[in-house]
Amino acid sequence: MKRSIIILWIALIALSSCKDLLTPAIENNRELNPDAFIPNDARFPFGILLNAYNRIPTNSWSFNDVATDDAVTNDQNNAFLKIANGQWAANNNPLSQWTNAYAAIQYLNIMLGQVDTVQWATDATVSRLMAMRIKGEAYGLRALFMYHLLEAHGGLSENSMMLGVPVNLEVQNPNADFNKPRATLEECMQQIYSDLDRAEDLLPIDFENIPNASQIPAKYGGSITKEQYDRAFGAAFRGFLTARIAKAIRSKVALLAASPSFSNGNSTTWATAANYAAAVLNLKGGLSALATNGVTWYSNASEIAGLADGTNPAEILWRSNYSDNRDLEQANYPPSIFGSGRINPTQNLVDAFPMANGYPITDPASGFDPAAPYNNRDPRLSHYVLVNGGTAGPNNTVINTTANGNTNDALNRVETSTRTGYYLRKLLRQDVNLNPTSANNQRHYKPHIRYTEIFFNYAEAANEAWGPMGTGTNTYSAYDVIKAIRRRAGVGLTNGDPYLEAAKGSKDQMRTLIRNERRLELCFEGFRFWDLRRWKQNLTETAKGVSIQNGNHTTINVEARQFQPFMTYGPIPYSEILKFSELMQNQGWR
């Protein structure tokens, strides 16, 4: 870690003389000390805050699903493929957040140490309010990066202690003591909660212009005009971290801490996790916050086209900026429509989608027909997975994935063909044209947090805390949430969903259903890899596919999963263990 921090300091010094960032002083440079901001120049310190924003991991688009039972890839150089095939090591970890997160935390600590020395605006009141806002953002971001560190590196040490990561709250200069032990998981959790408390204290629920000064929260003090408030907390700052987002981060953190793999190391309970999720949902109206078009949030063309800067669709709590491109489609369309077919959903995932009547396909009451396996299925299957005979692209091209198909879309035909008999459909806009003679781009955005994720956080935690029908101090249960999600998806609409009704009498049965629904709704958004680990579930289920010949569907083994039991937890980077004697490695890793 010391090397990365020193490099970060060198980068800051280099930035300090960049004329694109600030107006040079008379000597044509500034004091080469990143602790000493120029008091009346806010651009440099704000750039430091933006650097932290730019480091936020985006789970969607990482496709770590390739290292789970949900997907494989035809890209033989894919890092997650190598992880799944047994090449995951402490010195070879594409999932590491160590360097990225600690660099972000260093930037944020610099920001927090100097924020009150900067004149953010010539108006003293506005400057004070902006300093409050930026401190709130920095605390919230620091909590978020600590969460990602715990997710990737928290775990059981060699002596079976549940450990987190070192907690850095001060700026680390090149002479700092970097040889720090890992804090316990509980200590990390309390630090995260403390930072989120500070963020919520300093930030408004949302960044929006207010109608008049009477709407200014009392915590910002008196004698503030509407104009002053809007300059510091108005709509111009949509997209930056708010109190609403801080509450959502708290929900994510608490769910991780309450889960089976981490619950013995901290005081966060399932009830706590449920209440934190409910606090987010209740701000939006409880169950009514479930967006009716949330199943296809990524392809709701008119909604996406109408997005103003920083605004969110009803399904999205926090997102990145949108951009016009065709990168996802280029990587994942089938080859017959000029794509590379990279991400191939598995038969395992396809089998997890129930029938439209709500029954799993293994249930005798489901009506599943092995000769017509895609008929009468959960509508989400056709939204998320491109099956044989499905259509794709702007011309609704029929895709043939059979073993003896006559195009390159066929099973294992060429290196860009599917390995499982399926292609990815979720996240892709079907109005993108990749034909070189008429190629076009479309608008995409990446969600940081979706409301559907928070609904699942609540359902999982509420079921564990109070059972399927219990509500604690809230007004809805795990059953209520899953019923709403399944109805939105089009499941169980014609028969009252008897499978769900049976599950509401058993915590164990409801747990299985909640986990499966989470798997379906959040597939290919970077959750499955981490969910299996926090649940202590089987990591070695073989990835399967389907070979279709003469109308017969035969399940095939595609790729084994090579994970050891200790890989429930990720490693501390080997280079850090070599450098710092106080760092303890997680069990099993060398």
TrEMBL record:
Keywords: Cell outer membrane, Membrane, Signal. Residues 333-589 form the RagB/SusD domain. One of its GO terms (cellular component) is cell outer membrane. InterPro entries: SusD-like_N, SusD_RagB_dom, TPR-like_helical_dom_sf. Residues 1-19 form the signal peptide. It is found in: Cell outer membrane. Residues 59-211 form the SusD-like N-terminal domain. Belongs to the SusD family. This is RagB/SusD family nutrient uptake outer membrane protein. It comes from Niastella caeni.
